[in-house]
Fold this sequence. Notes:
By secondary structure, the protein is of the alpha+beta class. It contains two helices and ten strands, in the order H-E-H-E-E-E-E-E-E-E-E-E. It has helices spanning 3-43, 56-62, and strands at residues 51-55, 64-70, 73-78, 88-90, 102-104, 109-111, 118-119, 125-127, 137-142, 145-150. Bound molecules: FE2/S2 (inorganic) cluster.
Amino acid sequence: MKRREFFNWVGLGLLASSLPVAIAACTSDSSTTASSTDDNTANKPPAKNWQKVGTVVELDKKGQILLEDSPVGAVLVIGTSKAVKDLVAVNPTCTHQGCTVGWKKDQNRFVCPCHDAIFSTDGKVKGGPAQKPLRTYQTKIENGAVFVQPV
Ligand code: FES
């Protein structure tokens, strides 16, 4: 066998033996892509996830929970654990110019301290300069904690 033929056979042998490795590498790329897709899913807004915003003890003590930096956005929960079906949760950021609305229990509505926009418990505009409703959340109580989920 000539030297040139020998190297051709060795080269072919190396190519053949590395083929499974190359296929495995391609398969690994696919799983990396899939995991990358999973990461993209994780980066989606947590809009559909329940978010803990406080405890039942806190809610029952104050009649409300205000959390301005929740991962789902600002949250204001009104009510008590004794009437779970009546819990109300809104994003208290006023849709006019972004002030934080306050809950007026005696008037059963949210009122903005900046320009007096008024919102009902379902977030709809009832008066003032705001044109858009407050965003609302579903609520639930589980294991002593209060959770919200964007509607
Ligand atoms: S910012 Fe709320 S009414 Fe203007």
